[in-house]
Structure prediction request, 304 residues.
Amino acid sequence: MKRSLIWLACCLFLIAMPCFGAETSTVTLLFGQPKLLRGTTWFNLKEGVRLRDGDVIDLPPSGQLQLEFTDGGAVGAIGPGALYIVAASARDAKQPGSAELQLPRGWLKFVTKPPGPRVRIRTGLGTITASEAAVVVHAGDGFEAFVETGIARLSDVGKIELTGGEVKGGGFASRTAGKPLETERRPPATFVAALPRDFMDPLPLRAARFASVHVDPVADHEATFAEAQPWLAGPYRASFLKRFQARLDDPAFRDAMATSGKAPPEWSAAAPPPKAEVPPPAPAPPAKAEPERTFHWPWEKSSK
Prediction:
């Protein structure tokens, strides 16, 4: 009986192991009030919080965050902006690790070198990947990337395999909507002038300070439809549609979706129809005055 219990405990531990593996990086630097979207709930971030695949970071204008992967490498981000951790798998003995993040807008700097993970940053206008480099990326109306050291590779939007050219240390790449990627031997003066001062120096590696620390984020509120809508319409919409499916049980969420006019086609049937305007009731016709009697019974007293 005792051996059976020990065997059962070992099996349960092995089943639970992937849950622990979901934590792939740690917040090691934090300024301002960046928010963490995990599942459908917004959390307040603190230094020492472990991040997971699928987490979304929202950076206010004064916000700054740095995360460091469990197997080396770091990513710094400065708002206003957002960062979606698409996948960040820790390195194992069979293959090198990889980390994929989407930067819809904002500034980001990453540094990686073996045995750290291979980092891929996706933006709306281009993707940049490196396994041994320090790179600054700016995303928004356009795409800009400065390779500080090492070598990085570029690809167009939607390309899984990297098909673009290489950019070596000191080089610069950019793209605007409707135009192809362009590379230059050095960054233009406009980019250097806009570059955040903190990204002019190497990222400070602080993971050792949090190696034995476990900090839980503090829940703030459930995401509203307005907060979820950009992700429901973005390039990873299938994942976010699945994530927010349960929020359709919330009448406030459904009503906000219906009145926004931006309900995803998959959810159109779940949106309540707009309330028809009920016309006010017609006013009652005025009461008709009874005609004055001209005949009086003999016993009725005359009013005259």
